[in-house]
Amino acid sequence: MEFALSEEQRMLQDSVRRFLEQNAPLDKVRLAAGNTHTVQRSLWAGASEMGIPGMLIPEDFGGMGLGFLDAAIVYEMIGRHVAPLPFLGTAVMAPLALMLAGSEAQQEKWLPRIAAGEILAGVAVTEKIGIREDAGVKARNGTLTGKSLFVIDWAEADLYIVADSDHGLHLVLPDAKGLSRRALNTIDKTRSVGELVFDQVAAEPLPRSSADAVARVIDAGRVMLAADTLGAGQMMIEKAVAYAGERKQFGRVIGSFQAVKHLCAEMAAALEPSRSLVWYAAHALDEVPGDAHLMACHAKSHLSEVGRFVARTATEVHGGMGFTDLLGLHYWFKRIGFDRQLLGGPELVRLEAARLQGWAA
Amino acid sequence: MDLAYGPKYEAFREEVRAFLTKHKNQAPKGLGAAGRPSPEACSWQQLLIQNGYAARTIPKDYGGYGAKPDILESRLIAEEFSAARVPSALQNQGISMLVPTLLELGTEEQKKKWVKPTLRGEVVWCQGYSEPGSGSDLASLQTKATVDGDDFVINGQKIWTSTAHEADMIFCLVRTEPDKPKHEGISYLIFSMKTPGIEVRPLTTMTGHAEFNEVFFTDVRVPKTQIVGQRGQGWFVANATLKYERGMLGDPAAMETRFQALVDLMREETVDGQRAIDNPIFRDRLVRLQAELAAMKFNGLRLLTSASKGEDPGLARLIVKLQSCELTHQISALAIDVMGEFGVLYDDSPYLRSHGSWQWGYMFQLGLIIGGGTAQIQKNIISERGLGMPREPKQAK
């Protein structure tokens, strides 16, 4: 019985933390934020040298063959540093879709290239969670027609994984005829999402697609977003505590006022148990299939709520400075906001959790 | 991450199960949890001690089972007793607070005299700490003990003394050195509740029941030998005790039982023929609580792992009292809300649900948020010890 990160996992997390401290400091984040839909190639190359794109990919395909808990603690670090890395789509959701639903030939063709950091993969699954603006993709005779919104890691993708309205997953190349693309600009300038419009676009189906495979890809995405919020929230608390320890008013540091200390305590009290929930939800994706879907819902919805509370409270502890662009605290605020809305907001995800337990029709 | 206990512990689990299967029928029906245990509860406790399922790590010389401390074994025992719905070892303030204190700081004579009968449920203790003027600032306590010959003479008042009306004995903090700084003038005394000059008055709370008492001391004479630790060291003796306070670890299993009862309630209660669980707003609140409960449950597993390795889990431990009490209260609050008007029924009213336990719980659990270190004190602890934030500057006297 050991509910903890292993020594290897702590080392992995430390090495990613060090890498990001050196290579993704706030001034780099600011520069990247000015070019949201331009991939930070040198940063991704550095991450690739560490094996990050291929974390989940089996060693046979050039990856590291690690588990979702490993991926979650890495994304936690990426969230901690609000790092502009196309991790969620390229390193988690797309490879998982290929591993679950792809043919051997497809896996052999794409997985090694993803693992090596040579290509980027976007993921279009939002319509499986909820349809807006008549979006949705129909598959017919090897082509796709329709549109998909909030495509994850949309920018500069070399490959898109697209879910149709029938539990089918498809590979689409960005230069395919009939495909048009529009960037969507969000509050979070550290990650790219966009729209794909399909007009009889040639697509290659993943032959082992199923409702279950689509659901598992979404579950993994949700747990990762929860982990991102965990890391971003942790950093916001640390920044709030540090700021409260320096800023003086009425002749003393504001961190000595209980009104301020208690805000910090409330943030920590909410976030710390969430860490264990994220760990377990990620662990369950690999090891406890019966719990995986429910725990992905719980992790996503709970971290969304805790994240919102931490994001606003940490900003308040910073007072007026938190509201300005000077400290850049808003990058964390926005990152957490983005995590909440994508792949199902908390109310929607809780409804799914209720259905799963027979509590709702 | 490995959630399996492994063969050694699974074998131990089988032993516990075999014991339960064999002896289940001897278990007492009711739980005499806080007050005086019934004779059946006492003999059950003796059976548990003989088999190592109570007082497991207390040395044999003092009436325990004498096993080496192993937090995972303790956890398995708790899990199996809970799964079998069989009352586990007695839990009261004597066993959880006084016994560890005596074992750590008591004289050999004190240990020999008090530990065994306390473990067996034959001697019931109450805790004399809080006073009307000394709650969060416990070290400011004013109950006085002056020396007269071979005795201390005690005058003053304690409050929030649960089980005082049942107790044989009290472990009590008194001020013996009024001229010393507040933390250095306190002594820890143990004495009989039958000592002349002690008056116990029940303290009725908002629940309508007297879950606590006030205890008044008028010229109560206690031999000087009945001190634990040195004179003036009582604060430190008590702090050695406080770390054993069980409530601080939270009890995810109990919360889970309560949550399941809430789910059942929401399936049964209807308004206009619609079940509460089919109301999307109530249902959303339910799932939200379930996620928080899951977080606390896994936080508990994390604490267990830390404890088994002898590591301090830091924040993960410091937040437990604050978060658990709040979550428990929120579970009761939702139960009351789904009942609508029925949520205010109480006492022996017609239409009362679950014997009024949700209403009682909703009120009593507010008491738990305040007692044992208020939510605000918890936040001070979390921010100061967990986050390293500065203390409130002391006001000049």
Using the CA coordinates, give the radius of gyration of chain A: 20 Å
For the termini of chain A, the CA-CA separation is 37 Å
SSE class of chain B: alpha+beta
Total number of distinct structural domains of chain A: 3
- Residues in helix, % of chain B: 40-55%
GO molecular function, one term (chain A): flavin adenine dinucleotide binding
Domain Acyl-CoA dehydrogenase/oxidase N-terminal (chain A): 6-118
InterPro entries (chain A): Acyl-CoA_Oxase/DH_mid-dom_sf (IPR046373), AcylCo_DH-like_C (IPR036250), AcylCo_DH/oxidase_C (IPR009075), AcylCoA_DH/ox_N (IPR013786), AcylCoA_DH/ox_N_sf (IPR037069), AcylCoA_DH/oxidase_NM_dom_sf (IPR009100)
Cofactor (chain A): FAD
Write the layout of secondary structure elements.
The complex is a heterodimer of chains A (361) and B (397).
Chain A: H1 7-23, H2 26-33, H3 41-49, H4 68-80, H5 87-101, H6 104-115, E1 121-124, E2 136-140, E3 143-152, E4 159-163, E5 169-172, E6 179-184, E7 193-202, E8 204-205, H7 211-244, E9 248-249, E10 252-253, H8 258-287, H9 289-317, H10 319-323, H11 330-341, H12 346-356
Helix pairs in contact in A: 1-4, 4-7, 4-8, 5-6, 5-7, 7-8, 7-9, 7-11, 8-9, 9-11, 9-12
Chain B: H1 7-23, H2 39-51, H3 71-83, H4 93-105, H5 108-119, E1 125-128, E2 144-148, E3 151-159, E4 169-175, E5 186-192, E6 198-203, E7 212-223, E8 227-228, H6 234-242, H7 252-268, E9 270-271, E10 274-275, H8 280-309, H9 315-318, H10 320-338, H11 357-370, H12 375-386
Parallel strand pairs in B: 1-4
Antiparallel strand pairs in B: 2-3, 3-7, 4-5, 5-8, 6-7, 9-10
